[in-house]
Amino acid sequence: MEEVRETSAWVARNSSHVTIDSSGLEKVVETMKESIPKVEWDYEGIHYFDNGPLTVQYLFVLDALNFCFWPDKDLNYDHLAKGLKEALLNDHSAFDADRLTNYTGPQLRELLKWPRSLPLEEERVRLLHEVGFELERSFEGKASKLVESCGKSAVKLVALVTRHFPGFRDHSMYKGHQVFLYKRAQIFAADLWGAFKGQGYGEFNDIGSITMFADYIVPAVLQQLGVLKYSSTLANAIQASSEIGAGTEEEVELRACSIFAVEKMRELLSIKCGKQVLSVELDLWLWSVGVQCPSLQHHRTLSIYY
Ligand SMILES: Nc1nc2c(c(CN[C@H]3C=C[C@H](O)[C@@H]3O)cn2[C@@H]2O[C@H](COP(=O)(O)O)[C@@H](O)[C@H]2O)c(=O)[nH]1
């Protein structure tokens, strides 16, 4: 994703609140010299998988809803994945395109077995409708058709998803520049690659083009590792759990600098240790470290993008 890499690098060069500490970065790479931590996709055992097109439909619905869990302190990503998996095991047609266009908030809650309103519930429902409607209109109702039309290119898949589904157009304006972050579109490609182990629906000749997925967990991990440094105002706001507005300089910098830092980490691993590693692999390792650390303080932004 050249536009994600280039625009994130531009933010990192012009950043006011977040900086990348090169000695912190080198230290982390140093610890990885011996062995690069490798985390298995679905190490948690929470995902639906049947090696076929229904898995693709599951992953697309999952990533359409893969954002903003923190406003409910008891809710997390695992609930979404497990809930959707259960729903599909109980009813194989639960994610048929025509069903997706009709879900209501209470039905979505019931599907996920969640006892109260979901964060940004109306947006979640709207995005499900958008997915169902556009899959039906352009892809015979099937996310697998969308993937098949990408000729084993993750870059094409991200382009196609963002072209057809406005809810996946994760971008911001920053100091007069358009910045592309594309977290959920890229993670969809990565989830396919991980779930299908690089084969079939998960075969992409250019998986190395995907960047890390700028969410709220990985920036916090990078900060804890000493790779990212925050201005004192930003550090205090995160510490106090104050909301950081979507599209503010602080928010864009947190996300874009994380992308840039992981790209630098990958480059350094290659230069210093001769080890070729994918940003997707670094991302999963960093994310798994973050979600296993309950005291991690992350930034709080209400957003449909991550
Ligand atoms: N960068 C990055 N962010 C990721 C994921 C994943 C899950 N990936 C699946 C793929 C393989 C694994 O086996 C996982 O099952 C979720 N998130 C983000 O985290 C946040 C949720 O946090 P919490 O509220 O604590 O549950 C939220 O923004 C969510 O969008 C990832 O891989 N990378």
TrEMBL record:
<dbReference type="GO" id="GO:0006400">
    <property type="term" value="P:tRNA modification"/>
</dbReference>
<protein>
    <recommendedName>
        <fullName>Queuosine 5'-phosphate N-glycosylase/hydrolase</fullName>
        <ecNumber>3.2.2.-</ecNumber>
    </recommendedName>
</protein>
<dbReference type="GO" id="GO:0016787">
    <property type="term" value="F:hydrolase activity"/>
</dbReference>
<dbReference type="Pfam" id="PF10343">
    <property type="entry name" value="Q_salvage"/>
</dbReference>
<keyword id="KW-0378">Hydrolase</keyword>
<comment type="similarity">
    <text>Belongs to the QNG1 protein family.</text>
</comment>
<dbReference type="InterPro" id="IPR019438">
    <property type="entry name" value="Q_salvage"/>
</dbReference>
<comment type="function">
    <text>Catalyzes the hydrolysis of queuosine 5'-phosphate, releasing the nucleobase queuine (q). Is required for salvage of queuine from exogenous queuosine (Q) that is imported and then converted to queuosine 5'-phosphate intracellularly.</text>
</comment>
